[in-house]
Design brief:
Elements: E1 5-8, H1 18-46, H2 52-76, E2 78-84, E3 87-92, H3 93-97, E4 105-113, E5 116-121, E6 124-128, H4 136-143
Antiparallel strand pairs: 1-2, 2-3, 3-4, 4-5, 5-6
Helix pairs in contact: 1-2
Length: 157
């Protein structure tokens, strides 16, 4: 197999470990989810109501949701694309950080759109925004997008 072309997203973790990657990614969701908890605790405190049972349960719930959301994002956001011929490997942030083996799939189609490029790989479609991929022009050239207009499909019934 020829040496694959590797393209990295702006959020590519580089050599960071899974722990570092997770700690960098969890901050924003924790902040957004703890904001309503803190506002609710402030309102209860200003009204003279006890805050500890509700605020504690809400904070634990917010941390669990933030942790779950971060885990979901790290396992699903594609940050690295490897191309060789008509084969493609999509690697998530979690795959890159733990150095998971590369899984090759057939690249079914690449279609150029106004706002980027659509890659059809297996049963999923990946939208690539030019602002998120530093080597977007090389990536676009490597996948050889289909510039033909989409054929209108007419149902015979």
């Amino acid at each position: 197999m020829a040496t694959p072309a590797v393209f990295q997203h702006i959020d590519h973790p580089g050599d960071a470990s899974v722990a570092v990657l997770y700690s960098r990614a969890v901050g924003r969701p924790v902040g957004w989810l703890m904001l309503p908890v803190m506002v609710g605790a402030l309102v209860q405190a200003l009204q003279g109501a006890p805050i500890f049972p509700e605020a504690f349960v809400a904070a634990v719930g917010a941390l669990l949701v933030a942790s779950g959301w971060t885990h979901f994002q790290l396992r699903n956001r594609v940050v690295e694309i490897r191309l060789t011929g008509h084969r493609i490997a999509l690697r998530t942030a979690f795959d890159v950080a733990r150095d998971a083996p590369v899984t090759w799939e057939p690249l079914l189609r690449a279609k150029r759109q106004r706002a980027g490029l659509h890659l059809y790989v297996g049963d999923r479609t990946l939208h690539l925004d030019p602002n998120d991929w530093p080597a977007y022009s090389r990536l676009k050239t490597a996948v050889r997008p289909d510039d033909a207009p989409e054929q209108a499909r007419v149902c015979p019934y």
